[in-house]
Amino acid sequence: MDDFTRSVEAALFASDTPLGAEEIAAYVGEGDVAMALAALAERYAGHGVELVERGGRWHFQTSPDLAHILRRTREEPRRLSRAATETLAIIAYHEPVSRAEIEAIRGVQISKGTLDVLMEAGWVRTAGRRETPGRPLLYATTPDFLTHFGLSSRRDLPGIDDLRAAGLLDPLDEAIYQLQLENEVEED
């Protein structure tokens, strides 16, 4: 392994957060960061720790087949309320989205605390303001959201067919979805 690749490895190992290629380059200087990352990912494949990329950011993580060894030392995260889970899903699938849009999709008002919990977890961030009267804040997911849920990008979120196959759709939600599809067809 050449010195540049070793430098990239050291920067990733020492970092407490995932790093993008530009951030790595800022630490290690000039060189082919992409080639070094590919070489490291190949080198660590199948080891106890692996180099993975999530949302354009790289980090070392425990190999998934060995994660059970560390479970007892890991603090269990607080479970999200149903409102927070629904809000996070709406933001992930519709971002950037305003509070009013979230409330329209959910059909109920959300408390400010719900968004605060998601922002404290580092999964949601403000993404500017909509250019409409009142200039409402927009919300979007963060790279930490992708990392936490093991997604490379938002395109990896499950689609309606995946959710249906997993049995995660409520029969009432399924009926409403079918009615919406029928209404869209009639409007066309």
In short:
The protein is α+β, with helices and mostly antiparallel strands. The chain has three domains: 69 residues, Winged helix-like DNA-binding domain superfamily/Winged helix DNA-binding domain (Arc Repressor Mutant, subunit A), CATH 1.10.10; 80 residues, Winged helix-like DNA-binding domain superfamily/Winged helix DNA-binding domain (Arc Repressor Mutant, subunit A), CATH 1.10.10.10; 31 residues, no CATH class. Helix content is 51%, strand content 14%.
In whole angstroms, the N-to-C terminal distance is 60 Å
Tally of DSSP β-strands: 6
Q: How would the global form be characterised? A: elongated
CATH class of the largest domain: Mainly Alpha
Rg over C-alpha atoms, rounded to the nearest angstrom: 21 Å
The largest pleated sheet is described as: 3 strands, antiparallel
Return the CATH architecture of the largest domain: Orthogonal Bundle
Taken together, the total number of domains comes to 3
Q: What is the CATH superfamily label of the largest domain?
A: Winged helix-like DNA-binding domain superfamily/Winged helix DNA-binding domain
Helical content (DSSP H or I, runs of 4+): 40-55%
Order of helices and strands: HEHHEEHHEHHEEHHH
Strand order of the largest sheet: 1-3-2
Task: Give the number of helices.
Answer: 10
Q: What is the CATH topology assignment of the largest domain? A: Arc Repressor Mutant, subunit A
SS class: alpha+beta
Detail the poorly predicted runs: none
